[in-house]
Amino acid sequence: MKTFYRSSLRNKLIAFLLASIVLPISISILITYNYTKESVKSYYIRENTNLMHQGAVNLLGYLERINEASLLTYNNLSDKYSLYQLIQNGTQSYLEEREMYRNLQFMANSVKEIEQIYLYSAMEDHSYRYAYKLLRSTPGQTYIPDLDEERDAQIEAVHASHEYGIEKPKFPYHLSKEVFSFHRKILNAPTGEVLGIMSIDIRTDMIREISSMLYTPGSEELYILDRQGNLIFASDADSAEEGGHAWVQSILEQTADRGHFHYEDGRFEGIHIYESLSAPWLDWLLVKRMPYETLYRDPRQLTLINSLAVSVFLIIAATAAVIISYRFTNPIKQLLRYINKLESGNLDAGLAIDRSDEIGILSKRFYQLMQRINQLIMREYRLELASKSNQLKALQAQINPHFMNNVLQSIGTLALQHGDRKVYTLISSLGKMMRYHMRADNSSVPLSAELDYVQSYLALQRQRFDENLQYRIEADDAAGAVQVPRMILQPIVENVFKHGIQPALGPGEITVVCRMAEPSVLEIRVADNGVGMEEAEREKLQAILNRTESVFEPVSGDDGIGLINILSRLRLFYSDEVRMRLENRAPHGLEVIISIPLGGKEGLFDESTDRG
């Protein structure tokens, strides 16, 4: 069995495929799940700690407004009709009683959630109750709040509102509402003597509104407790009453002002996040509870979905591994048999292979096959070079006889009409052109020689157009020394006379400028003031010229060698980086711009170089 496993690539492949699929994915799922759980937990704690702190700030701000409302008692101490003076001196007249009503009404309107105000004046032993915009009073102290002796003010937990013992004369109606009470001792300013007691009932609307922003109903719980464990607010009062004593006690045992801890009992397992609300008259705890079941629901569902998907994938992958292994090894064996048929004799192996499985045998045969392929590649490469050389020579052999006819006609006409030395000049220029053209020994020449040829060509054309032609040829020394293929400029200039210059447009102008645009980039510009090209035609031709491959396209009609052939020759001579642009000139005319990256080819500057 061991030998069978070692010598069989198929068995190895099946085992490795299954192991490489099952193990990494299973480990990845476990790591991802645990990491996601911890990330979710850390993110939840961090975000909710900040949220609870902001909620505590908002609650303290609201409760501070209520505290300030109770301190309105001490406004305008010197005014005999101020609430402080009325409590200290009593209400002996109808006017004083009306001022008492006005002061309590002002206090009640300072915070819209104030339900009613109870006031006891110890100096006159009289109790007052302001509710529903009415004021009722009765002798004696009808209500005694549970106040710590060391505190001047204290908040009572949420409870149902009541009448504070003042039943007669009755209010027109009384509706019991859920309120919390703010109790304050009214003290004599200089002596600290207790002048009375004030109790303000505040509806829990704002407490609930602020608290609702701090938890998600259905998945989180929020509670506000005092340090005695009394419930101020509960998002789920039923749950708090059912079994909340244990967790409430664990919250009260916390010594830090804020924090979080893990808690677990028979009905809850999760995180508690708490924040203290502290003031001289307040000592509350803001508590948020999140069960792990809810916290980890999304990671658990994601892991479950991934596990199901991976299980299906593993079944498919295991089946595919077996099938692929069989189908992968069978073609290898067939390939070996095919290679054996192709090999014809060169059996000297230069590659040492010790493996005895299918890959080892394939490697030996593949090495031998590659040797043959390399030979074929070299043969095809030489054939390609020869083909390109023949193409280049074929392009150079193209010439338009129409030009020679026009030149000879111009010289003959001039000789008949004038008979002067200009005939000699024309014939001399023609001779130079013919000698240049007939030189077939070199396929490349310095750019300066090509410019001389264009100079002779333009001199002849100038006589043809009755001196109605101006031309200018410029080239710096570095540009003139560059080796270029023969006959790359004259066809461009010839196109000007065939398609560009028209007598109706005035005297013709042709400019040829050659310069080194960069240290290794030759730029050639041929510009005229002829009719130019239609924009659609120019864009179509430019699209062909922009193609990077060197393609010899047939040229129809009497267009001569043509721009496409010139670009193809330049790319054969240099590289596919050669570019040709066509630009219309204003107000009319065309400019052909050729950019030739030389690429540091020093051999291109040697006039004797034969690239044919």
Task: Summarize the structure in words.
Among the domains are: 75-214, 2-Layer Sandwich (Beta-Lactamase); 351-397; 443-550 and 559-597, Heat Shock Protein 90 (2-Layer Sandwich), CATH 3.30.565. It has 17 helices and 18 strands. The protein has helices at residues 2-7, 9-70, 83-89, 94-109, 205-212, 237-243, 245-252, 292-295, 297-342, 358-396, 401-417, 422-438, 447-464, 477-480, 490-500, 535-545, 562-573, and strands spanning 114-121, 126-131, 134-139, 153-160, 178-187, 194-203, 221-226, 231-234, 258-264, 269-279, 282-291, 444-446, 469-475, 483-485, 508-518, 521-528, 579-584, 590-597. It is elongated. Residues 397-402, 550-560 and 601-612 have low confidence and may be disordered.
Using brief descriptors, characterize the structure shown.
612 residues; alpha+beta; Beta-Lactamase; six-stranded antiparallel β-sheet; 17 helices; 18 strands; 48% helix; elongated; disordered C terminus; HAMP_dom; two-component regulatory system; kinase; cell membrane
Give me the secondary-structure topology.
Blueprint (H helix, E strand, L loop, with lengths): L1 H6 L1 H62 L12 H7 L4 H16 L4 E8 L4 E6 L2 E6 L13 E8 L17 E10 L6 E10 L1 H8 L8 E6 L4 E4 L2 H7 L1 H8 L5 E7 L4 E11 L2 E10 H4 L1 H46 L15 H39 L4 H17 L4 H17 L5 E3 H18 L4 E7 L1 H4 L2 E3 L4 H11 L7 E11 L2 E8 L6 H11 L16 H12 L5 E6 L5 E8 L15
Parallel strand pairs: 13-15
Antiparallel strand pairs: 1-2, 1-6, 2-3, 4-5, 5-6, 7-8, 7-11, 9-10, 10-11, 12-14, 15-16, 16-18, 17-18
Main location: membrane
Keywords: ATP-binding, Cell membrane, Kinase, Membrane, Nucleotide-binding, Phosphoprotein, Transferase, Transmembrane, Transmembrane helix, Two-component regulatory system
Subcellular location: Cell membrane
